[in-house]
Structure formats: C-alpha cells, structure tokens
Amino acid sequence: NPFVPGLLANIVGSPLDYSYKTEKNEKACLSSGGVCTWPRGRMLSGTGSFSGMLYTRPSPSIFDNWATRLGNKGWSSKEVLEFFKKSENNLNPDLIEKDQHGFAGPLTIQRFSSQPPFADDILKAAEALGYKGNDLSGSKPNGLNYVQGMVDQGIRASTARMYLGKKLNQTNLVVKLNAQVQKINFSGTKATGVTFKDLKTGEIVTVNVTKEDTSYLSSYCHSTNSSTNLFLTLVDFLVRTSCMVADPCYRSECKDNQKLLNATADHDDFIAKLTSIRTSRNTAFIDDLIKKYASIVGNAITGPLPCGRRRVGVRPNNMLPLSKGRLVLRSANPDDHPKLITNYLDNEQDAKVLLQGVRIAQRIMLSESLKKYDVQLVFMTSPSCAGYTKDSDDYWLCIIRQFTLAENHPTGTCKMGPASDPEAVVDDQLLVHGVENVRVADASVFPTQLNCNPISVVIMTAEKCAQMVLDKNKV
Prior knowledge:
The chain is α+β, with helices and mostly antiparallel strands. It is 20% helix and 24% strand. It has nine helices and 24 strands. Strands 6, 14, 15, 17, 18, 20, 23 and 24 form an eight-stranded antiparallel beta sheet that branches. Strands 3-7-5-4 form a four-stranded mixed beta sheet. Strands 10-11-12 form a three-stranded antiparallel beta sheet, with no helix packed on it. A hairpin with a 5-residue loop joins β11 (190-198) and β12 (204-208). It is globular. The two termini are 43 Å apart. GO terms for molecular function: flavin adenine dinucleotide binding; oxidoreductase activity, acting on CH-OH group of donors. FAD binds at residues 47, 181.
C-alpha cells in the first residue's frame, strides 16, 4: 500500500515499480557489477507516491541562476515562491520562516511525529560543531534540523491523494488507470492528441485535444545531459539506548495509521526519518534502524523493542554531482525501458564530496556531546577494499565506489532554456521547442540539479504550468 509510509521499501521491485536498471558503471555501484537500481513509480503521482516524503526546497540562488544566467524568464526565486505557497498547507508555522510558506494549499506539510530524545542530542552535537539548523525550505536552508514531510493524518500525502482525492467526482475530470501512452499525435508541428494502450484490455485509444493547449503532454525527450543525486549506502554507528515500548497494533484492527508510520516493517531495515543536514553540496539523512524486529504484514507489533545497542545509519549524499549521464530510447517501442547511462562518480570530485560527508558524520556522531551513548563506528566490509587501512580516505573512497546508490532524483533530460541553447528542449513556458501544444512539467525540465529532494520543485513546476495554461486560455 503506497499510502503507508512504513511499507515504502516493500514497493520497490513490486508491480507498482518499473524496476529500471542502469547501464554498467565503471566507477560506481561496483558491489552489484556496476549496475544500479532505479525504482520508478507505476501509479498515480508516479515515483512521488513512494518517495521518502521529505519536503525540502533548494537554495534560492538555484532559481536565480535559472532566470538570469540561463535565460528562463519568470523562474527567479521571488517569482516561483508564490507557486510553492499555493501548493502548501504547512502545519508547523512556529518552526519555519512564515513568509516562505503557504498555509491554505492542498498539500499537507509537517514534521514527522517520531522525534526521539536521541535526535535532539544529535542536533545539539551538530550545533556545537557549527551546523546549527534552520528552516530547510526557507531562505537559507543549511545546517542540521528535523525535516518536514508530505504526511497527512499519519499517511502519505501524495499529490494523487491531496490534489485528486476530492476531485474524482467532477464531471470534467477523467482519471484513466492502467493506461500507457504510446505516442503524441501531430498535424504538422501541432499536437492534436495522444494515443494510449489500455493495459487491461489491450485496446488502443486515441484522445484528441478539443481546445488549443488545454492539456499538457509529457513523454521521454531526446537525449541530453542529466544527473541524479548519489549517496553512500550507510555509515553505521552503534549507540546504547534505554528500552522502548511499541504501541500494540494489529493489521486487521489498527485504525491509527500513525502507528504504522512508527512501526518496523519486514524488509532489511525500516527507516524512520529523524534529521537532515544541509550544506551547499552535501546532505545527510540520519536514520534510526531497527533490524527486523517484527512484521507489519500479518503479525502483531506489541511489547518492548530490543534494549541495549541500536544501529544508527548516516547517508552522506552528493546533491550537486559533477558527473553527467544520458537517457536515450532503447527502441521506438514505448514499452521498452529506456537506456540509463548514468556515469556515476566519473568525476573524481563527486566521490570526494561523499567522503567529506562521511567525515562530517563522524565528527558529529563521535563528538563529546554524544559520549553518553558510547557511539561506536561500524565499518562496512568489501573484499575489494580489504587492502586499505580502515577509516583511511582510500578505504572510504573504495567503499563509496562499491556501495554507491542513486538517490533517484534524476533531472535535466528535457532541459528548460531559450531556443539559442542547443541543449534546451522546452522554453520558459514549458513548451517544447519547434512544436505546438506540448508542455512538459516534471523534473526533466530542470536546467540544473537541485540541492534538495526534488518533489517540492516538481509540484511547484506543475502549479506554475497550470497557471500558464489558464493564462493562455483566458476568454
């Protein structure tokens, strides 16, 4: 169930996932033969319906660069702020910069409810080292702080649920499930509709546009440079904690989905988001891991959780990698998965940024402020790295290349920019260059990478696109 946050990992590899694989990398994901996994959502809201739900925004300078240096009029930080606010219903007004947020939009944003005392101590340790946190979606998103997420009443606040949920009975809205677009139809250079396949019946259906530009169409664009965030799987620490008690909850009887949010799940590790640290190029999520204590599926979750040592993982993340990849069509058949040539860690600096993240994690977790937890570093092992001294830079660089994973935030395959930019696919109105009536409104249009989780910017882009369509069709 994509609505239950605790079952996030269960979706990966399921029928709700396209389960893409990258082409072989020479310098990354080496423990899996250089092939990395790219989960992609096959459901309403796409991959947004099984994202980590983190809601953060990039540094304002990212948008100012889009507008000024890259020539995208209307995309400065001041101009896009209204569309962030329009989408957002932030439930933590006392914890954020109020003038940077919205409080009446359809999308519920709030802090995750699970905030154990240990996380407060991590924040204090980080502050003592100069990483004092602030609003991670505000005007200066830096430091270590609790993250906010897209959560409403204990379950996932996906765009499908929050935008479409109350609109499904409208007569002017039809939502077609189990349908896959085959092609965009044209008359000359003007898009006239789409042809899709009903995956249940096999029927091929054509839907025509009856009014110019009243709908936008999104598809794979031609090959261009793209990039995605990278992270090292985990830097693990063991900490000593007191006993904890879980709320009793049975799958057939549980009415409070919040209990599922905080429960453990039957996959390798359940990850409950605690804190996030933001620097200009590096971020890290600090995760509390409880190893296979109980299963949500079928079994009761009740009684005390294990006492004693617990594992805390830190995921260093390179938000602005210099290595670039390409997305190309494997064939003319829309059912074939695309070719994902990622080139992860081809630029040596990308691995060094992740190494810097490892060292920041060590300074925080092994600091004087956390000594009462008797924190111990757990070293990852790989036969390929056995020749390096543990904790040396060379050791960590080897581990980084062995256990690299994509953060699954690919962008830039339909770059936004003026016609004079040879790499640009869409203009600043999100219209595809050279054709009429085709707009693209997703992460593929971002002309540069973001130093945050991209879903907030995807939603802002969709809000802005909707306004553009309305403005063009005003009577």
